[in-house]
């Protein structure tokens, strides 16, 4: 089955800087690559996604890049704000059609 | 907008008893529902994936006998934790999507299960 890794468990940045959160996967048949965030004490919320037919997608301050060769996709948050602080989870959809979550990267944006 | 209501938000049950949690999709048709458990270490484990008009697929370490799931229509799903013990503690989340699993999931608030 799909193995998903988020190697950085924590990431700390200053307000206004960019943050990059990475996710690697193993299943070459993976086709759908979403990111979710979980704020303290709250549930999961969708952030942004990308499909395997493109390698870049942007939505305002969020950019997701997909490198199918390296089996890696990354979330870039530009001009970070304190309210971006949360745990970010990648959940690629493998060929078995099951979304598998990474262990999460805790982003802390310092004012 | 699309929302998922999950209830109860918190529940405490005695060891060996059972509890049921429910998810209601509002504003969209929940074709697929995924049930997850989040451990204290924040890791998400997929329990099962349910698609309307298809069999419910359970992950290894999770069985229908322990976690029976119902997904009778495009707006509702429920899961029961039977004979709950300490190792069943955690936050249970349902995530629903309009299409198959290759669409974004809308999550409920989760049900936090404590077992005494």
Number of strands of chain A: 10
By oligomeric state, this entry counts as: heterodimer
Biggest sheet architecture of chain A: 5 strands, antiparallel
Radius of gyration of chain A equals: 13 Å
Largest interface: A-B, 22 and 24 residues
Which keywords apply here?
heterodimer; A: 111 residues; mainly beta; 5-stranded antiparallel sheet; 5-stranded mixed sheet; 10 strands; globular; B: 116 residues; 4-stranded antiparallel sheet; 0% helix; 52% strand
Structure in words:
The complex is a heterodimer of chains A (111) and B (116). Chain A has 111 residues and is mostly beta strands. Chain A is 0% helix and 50% strand. Chain A contains no helices and ten strands. In chain A, strands 1-3-8-7-6 form a five-stranded antiparallel sheet, with no helix packed on it. The radius of gyration of chain A is 13 Å and the shape is globular. The N and C termini of chain A lie far apart (41 Å). In chain A, 36% of the residues are buried. With 116 residues, chain B is mainly beta. In chain B, 0% of the residues lie in helices and 52% in strands. Chain B has no helices and eleven strands. Chain B has strands spanning 3-7, 10-13, 19-26, 32-38, 44-51, 57-58, 69-73, 76-81, 90-97, 106-107, 111-115. Classes of the chains: A mainly beta (111), B mainly beta (116). The A-B interface holds A 31-32, 34, 36, 38, 42-46, 49, 87, 89, 91, 93, 97-101, 103-104 and B 6, 34, 36, 41-44, 46, 49, 57, 59, 93, 95, 100-110.
């Amino acid at each position: 089955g799909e193995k998903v890794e988020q190697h950085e468990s924590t990431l700390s940045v200053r307000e206004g800087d960019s943050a990059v959160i990475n996710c690697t996967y193993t299943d070459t048949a993976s086709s759908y690559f979403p990111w979710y965030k979980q704020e303290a004490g709250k549930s999961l919320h969708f952030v942004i996604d990308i499909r395997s037919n493109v390698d870049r997608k942007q939505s305002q301050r969020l950019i997701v890049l997909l490198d199918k060769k390296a089996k890696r996709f990354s979330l870039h948050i530009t001009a970070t704000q304190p309210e971006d602080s949360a745990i970010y989870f990648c959940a690629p959809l493998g060929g078995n059609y099951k979304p598998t979550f990474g262990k999460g990267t805790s982003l802390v944006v310092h004012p | 907008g699309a929302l998922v209501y999950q209830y109860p938000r918190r529940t405490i049950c005695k060891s060996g008893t059972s509890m049921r949690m429910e998810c209601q999709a509002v504003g969209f048709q929940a074709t697929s529902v995924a049930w997850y458990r989040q451990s204290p270490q924040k890791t998400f484990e997929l329990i099962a994936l349910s698609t309307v008009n298809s069999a419910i697929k359970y992950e290894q370490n999770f069985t229908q006998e322990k976690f029976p799931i119902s997904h009778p229509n495009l707006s509702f799903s429920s899961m029961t934790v039977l004979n709950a013990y300490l190792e069943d503690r955690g936050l249970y989340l349902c995530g629903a999507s309009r299409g198959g699993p290759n669409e974004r999931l809308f999550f409920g608030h989760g049900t936090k299960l404590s077992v005494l």
